[in-house]
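User: For documentation purposes, I need each entry recorded in a consistent format: the amino acid sequence on its own, followed directly by the corresponding structure tokens. There are two entries in this batch. Please keep commentary to a minimum and don't merge the entries.

Assistant: Recorded as requested. Entry 1:
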Amino acid sequence: MSLLVEGTSGSGLRLGASGRGTKQADVRAYNERLLLSLIRRHGSLTKAETSRLTGLSAQAISVITRRLEDDGLLQRGDVLRGKIGQPSTPMALAEDGAFSFGVKIGRRSVELVLIDFVGQVRYSLREAYAWPLPDAVIGFIRHGVSSILEILSASEQARIAGLGIASPFELWQWEEGVGAPAGAMASWRSTDLVQAMDADLPFPVYLQNDATAACGAEFIFGSGHEFPNYLYLFIGFFIGGGVVLNGGVFTGPSGNAGAIGSFPLSDVDGNAVQLIDVASAAILEARIRAAGLDPSPMWNEADGWTRFADFIDGWIDDIAPYLAKAILGSCSVIDFSAIILDGGFPDDVRSRLVVATRKALGNLNLSGIIAPHIVEGTVGHQARAIGGACLPLFDKFMLASTPTLNEAI
């Protein structure tokens, strides 16, 4: 069987059977991405395990592994003894193998992180605002990247894969929702974030919808690998989502797949609403403000949510039924095996919301569908920024989806 590698790194390399020849460099690049993707998914693998998963010969695995180890992308674990046959050495991703910057542009704050090759946040900077404006956001990114670069060694700087920006699309449409004056955010219409940052940085810049980016973070560094198909929900100031199908993040032709905030519903009075109107943290903020309190600690302080415990229980009780209805509607279209729920709130709030949503789903008529598992996300409140940082790593080192054995041989 001859092999054909199709596509570019940006769209994910595809391997399939073909009567045509292929460039050796393409096969090499594909196999390297395949090994890195599998090792990332499993944590570590021996050469024998990698050979079994890919269908590649032990000799080929040795060559590829040695090359990736020489490049600093893989590191050896402790030798495994006590099993039949020769002792084996598992290979894992090297923490310092690559670094990546990620930016989250939110309705109330902007955040910059630098993560390493295994997803650990090495540095993090954050700035709050009343609403996002292009000049302030771009200035924050420039200053933050420059500050972090000054801390890194020359060898670490050489291993930076790029900068990924996770941002809501068409920010100018969110003026009313964030309480900005009319026209205050109009300058976003003419702002090209990628172009603005490309001019300043020696590495590539990427842009993706913020909720889809968060979904990518859960897929790569969280529990997403446990489910081949799932709907991801992230509740920030507004709710958003992402979709994973057949073991890969599905973005759709416009990059907006999983835009769960637009899901149509009826409120308790029978009025037509969207999920974003009835299941977002903006509702909680509005209730706190209506009580004469300042809600800004929710966005400005690490323990800010604990100040508003009296409001959180009611908020969870109110939004869980709407989440359940949106989940039911989504599962009637795609047979999702799981729903992963995360958000910009503390872990205990996430746990309580998952429990309430499971209960609310159980109260609905589930005839005709198999109820999905509703589980907690594991990346947490920095998922969008980490998801942004995933974009360069994904583009340079990973496959769009990890093939099964039949696809890999």
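Entry 2:
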Amino acid sequence: MATQSDSAELLVGGAYYGGWKRLSVSRSIEQVAGTFTLEVTDRWAGQQAAWPVRPGARCELRLAGERVMSGYVDVAEPSFEDQGSQLRVEGRDSTGDLVDCSAIYKSGQWRGVTLDSIARDLLKPFGVGVVVQADVGERFASFSIQQGETVFECLERAARLRAVLLVSDGAGNLVITRAGNTLAPVTLEEGVNILAGRASFSWKDRYSRIVVKGQARATDDFFGEQAAGPSAAGADDVIDRYRPLIVLAEDHGTAATLADRARWEASVRAGRGNRGIVTVQGWRRSDGALWAPNVLVTVRSPTLYLDAPMLIVGCNYRLDEEGTFTDLTICRREAFELLDGIGVSRLKAKLNHKTQREKRKKGDDWSAL
């Protein structure tokens, strides 16, 4: 029988439904909407009515007594066979509509407003709130919806220019934030509380040389090729074969600021290409809190070459016949240090540090730790 520490309940139509036999719940700072998949065989204990879950229904998901998602049912799949009936339910946070739906707002253009103001204007029809947890930066002189883009695509483009992340808080709100710097009061250690772990070190999105090209404002007398902006290059010293990439900056900039952007591009690509997944028992940390993304946790694993604080990028809570587990996706926090437009990168000093450059040349997979 499920206990409070491993129970999962879905609230639909004012009633909670538990007894789920299998589940997978995913939350991440890389996705603006959390997702869930639940499965149950036969009807819930004490429930005589037919399956009450329908697509489009407003719902709330609780794990171990805590709300982790508030949104809508996307898919309901009832089925039956000789052994009985089954229901499979898929759903997402309310912010899932921002991923699916087109961005629409009056003329589609704003002048002299901040990022959170744009977000509130676009999200109001969806009933999704905006929570600001980071400095949203200066006002946009002008910002427009691009033809055909979704709400999330529009906001993500603006957020990238203001060095912030867009995530869900599990309560039906969009959160404007940055990579977390709070260290959890627990340690994950191979052979102690880590059940399994794996790392992936990829060169797929890494390049030996990255050239960032800026833009220059054209005028009646300054246009065409003459209006081409400055450019700057950065390098990933670990990539030892010819792999060039040209990146077009989102905004205007000087050669100096573009050089910072190029260094940042190489660093972030390296950080996001190197990540790991560790599996722990249950959904709660040893201090009683639910595992959550955007928190630092110390990881000690000789097999994964780790002994350092790592950022929890995502949490996948699981339930199956073997019990409850949480898969934690981890990487360097620097992988989510976002650059403010094409301004000065906060990573510049770290990337230029002699020791870090030497470590990168040696090819360490977790070179910035």
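Summary note for entry 2:
The first strand starts at residue 8 and ends at 12.
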